[in-house]
Amino acid sequence: MLTYTLRRILGMIPTLLLISVVCFTVIQLQPGSFLDQYLEDPRVTKETVASITRQLGLDQPLWVQYLTWIKGIVTQGDFGYSFVNGRPVSSLIWERLGWTVFLAVLTLIVSWVIAVPLGIYTALNRYSKRSVALNFFGYVSLATPDFLVALLLIALVLNLGGTNVGGLFSPQFIDAPWSGAKVMDLLGHLWIPMIAIGLEGVAGLMRQMRASMLDVIGQDYVRTARAKGLAGRRVLWKHAVRNAVNPLISLAGLSLPSLISGTIIASIVLNLPTIGPFLYDSLLNKDQYVAMTLLLFSALLLLIGNLLSDLALAWADPRVRFE
Prior knowledge:
Elements: H1 2-29, H2 36-39, H3 46-56, H4 62-76, E1 81-82, E2 87-88, H5 89-124, H6 129-143, H7 146-159, H8 180-216, H9 220-227, H10 232-244, H11 246-261, H12 264-270, H13 275-284, H14 288-316
């Protein structure tokens, strides 16, 4: 297993290098540039624009710009310079990336804790009224955009007398040092983004678990276990659930980046300090190094998520071996 893990990690290097080329090419293909705002301003002379172009390194050939960017990442951990914020990209993304991963992982864990039992229940009681109601809830949740759920939750809280419904902290705790009161304030704000971002994931996982359980409980080895007189609970958890959950583990690696890149509008609505709104703003402002870095980190999270899901699948299913 260790050899396989090291081989996968080493294989990420050329993959990330290729992804960096794609990210750089896509960003360069977008029409216009950051300098357009200066060209359209009659108060800015052409000499000033040329000077800014040289300072930002945008007068260099594209291949030189790419190699300079990659060299800075590999040798110094320098992801470039934010044209809009006037600061290095690395100083801007770490805090947002931390909150992004925190929200994504927490939402993923809560979604699994809720969705897997619901999927098992709806599979074992597929004709009951509760199962029908849960399936209907799943269809509605899958069809409802996350930003609409966020708006409905904001309206609900405001109608109930709440005030601070955006962000992760109340204004007095944003720059305050960590304390018990700040943690409680975070927990008080955290439930809205978790529901808005995780509701669709809960519904999708529940449907997948239900379909997988319905397929597994009809298999011969489950019927054989029952015929041998094993207890129903033992048959359910050791034979049925253990095999039914494997497809969900395989797909878990894809959930992490989708929670980041697929919730940009909801993050904007809820004013969350994540990389989704930051990526959106960088694309609008043509802040190329910020956009390329965030896209590269999203790809890295996808590779890490797939590796972790493969390792978890090998741990959960003894039939899977990579050596």
